[in-house]
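Reopening this ticket.

The earlier resolution said the output was attached, but the attachment link was broken on my side. Pasting everything inline this time so it's all in one place.
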Amino acid sequence: MASTRGEFSSRFGFIMAAAGSAVGLGNIWGFPTQAASNGGAAFLLIYLILAFTLAYPALMAELIIGRHAHANAVSALRQISPNATLRRIGAGTGIIGFIVASFILSFYAIVAGWMMAYCLAAIADLFQLTGLSQWLTGFGLERNILFMLTFMALTVGIISEGVQAGIERWSSRLMPLLLVSLVLLVAYVLTLDGAMDGLRVYLLPDFDRALSPGLIVKALGAAFFSLSLGVGTMLIYGSYINDRENLPVVGGLVTLVDISIAVLAGFLVLPAMYVALHNGVEIFTATGDLISEDTLIFTVLPALFTSMGLAGVVVSCVFFFLMSIAALTSSISMLEVPVAYTIEQHGVTRKRAVVVIGLVIALFSTIILINFDSLFGLVVAITTRYSQPLLGFMFCFYAGWVWRRDQLLQELRRGNENVEHTLFWKIWPWYVRLVCPLIILVIFVQSLFGSS
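Inline output:
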């Protein structure tokens, strides 16, 4: 079945695709400011610990189920269910998962379109096209729809080519480009006046703030969402892995790449903020807190780039190009979730499924843009704060409680015949059964009631 569906041709291709799915806009703009606002290095340390104690086990649940079934989430959860009731619940979970993934992509495409517009605005500034630059950076409905559609067209174009020629090929190109761009930007920003102040905020711990219960829960949430869990993207990518791969190893590598890029982004964003402060750009609110992520990206950093003259134009172009790549590598995995379901459950050709689903998502993005004030925040909250944790809970429930232990072990033996003697097998089965669901529920409760 795997060969007719498509399959990643190499471990590198899978790691780049899966890490690309996980590395999104939140890693690059959200994580660094969360760390800075919540105890600096202490938050960073807690995040790193939790990423491997929560995110990695939950990631493995999706990868193992996906590789076992070589199918979409609906079929996969049905396959491992022992009775009709659990099969129906599993199918419902899979359906909700691809609906949530589609809604996430609908607002993600809007934000990604802004990134592309700001990248082109920097090029317009380079050629002194002031009017064009102002239009590209203005919050106009025409601009928003145009660049949302452009971003969706890029996503559709990649997905329509399939697993190897589309997802793997482009992820293997874009992810190294993202990493190189990020390293070059970090190296440059660290040479600027004020950068060391931002570095101290990022790396010096404030344990009193970071060890408060509320902030630990925030770190839990950051670790969980960092790996794009809960909507079936990793399950789908897992279904394209060949049976010879050692899943605990490749899952660990994906987690390591994702976390490394998030941490590296901190070495860019926090120093850049304090460079902006040094140049007279305000980065604090009236209450003394760091500004929110969206204000940072679309107000503070552009003001910083403007103050840097010609070098700032180049840095601005590279930075927003970097953000556009991060968005694209995530969006292709989101679109693949409903596409895989449609192809396998309804026998539709890939190109037709991609185009139709892409158009439906683009239409909903347009509706959000027309009713931006009332819909944008609502869709973000429903999908990321509420739906993702509950879906992640269900994947852990099926891996830990529904799937028979001997079948799970047999699946893992495909890539490592001695896996039952490893530390992974001694810890992971009971961990994903008891600890992960409990932690995910804590995140969900916190998202409902908040935490100080």
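Reporter confirms the inline version is readable. Residues 2-449 form a domain with the Amino acid/polyamine transporter I fold (CATH 1.20.1740.10). The chain has a mean pLDDT of 89.
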